[in-house]
Amino acid sequence: MSYKILVADDEAEIRDLLHLYLEKDGYEVVEAADGAQALSALQEASLQKEDIDLVILDIMMPGIDGYRVLRNIRENSNIPVIMLSAKSGDADKILGLDLMIISRNRFSRSRLLPESTPISEDFMLSVPAGRNR
C-alpha cells in the first residue's frame, strides 16, 4: 500500500520538486496550486473513501491561505500536516498548532523525510493525538 500525500503550494517549482522527491520514494502525490484546490482534493478523497495520509501545506497562498486550510483540516480530520514557510517568523505565529514547520528556503529531501534524518531544532513534527498509522 502506497501512502498518499497532498502537496499544496502556489509555486509550481516547489510542487514539482516535492512531487519528484516523494514519488521517487514510492509515495502517491496529489497536487494543489492553492487553498481552494487543497480543500477540494481533501473533500474528493473523503468522498471516494481514499485516505490522504499527509498534507504538505504552504502558508502563504492566494485566496484561501494555509492557516485557513489547516483550520478546516483540523475541524474534520487528524491528518498530519507539514507547513512550508518562506518566513522565519511564521514559527512563532503557529507554535501551538501541532504541526511541522520547514522553511522553504532551507528544505531538502533529507529534511522532508523524517526517517532519513535526525530531528533538529528547525525540523519538528507533531502528529495529532489519536492518529494511528
Itemize the secondary structure elements and their pairings.
Layout: E1 4-8, H1 12-24, E2 28-32, H2 35-47, E3 54-58, H3 66-76, E4 81-85, H4 90-93, E5 100-103, H5 109-112
Parallel strand pairs: 1-2, 1-3, 3-4, 4-5
Short description:
The chain is an alpha/beta fold. It is built from 5 helices and 5 strands.
Cα radius of gyration in angstroms: 14 Å
Report the β-strand fraction as a percent range: 15-25%
Question: Given the structure, what is the number of helices?
Answer: 5
Tell me the major beta sheet: 5 strands, parallel
Unreliable stretches (pLDDT < 50, length at least 5) are 116-133
Helix/strand/pairing class, anyone?
Answer: alpha/beta
The helix-strand sequence is EHEHEHEHEH
Principal-axis shape equals globular
How many beta strands in the DSSP annotation? Answer: 5
Helicity range: 25-40%
Q: How far apart are the termini?
A: 12 Å
Summed over residues and divided by their number, the pLDDT gives a mean of 76
Strand order of the largest sheet: 2-1-3-4-5
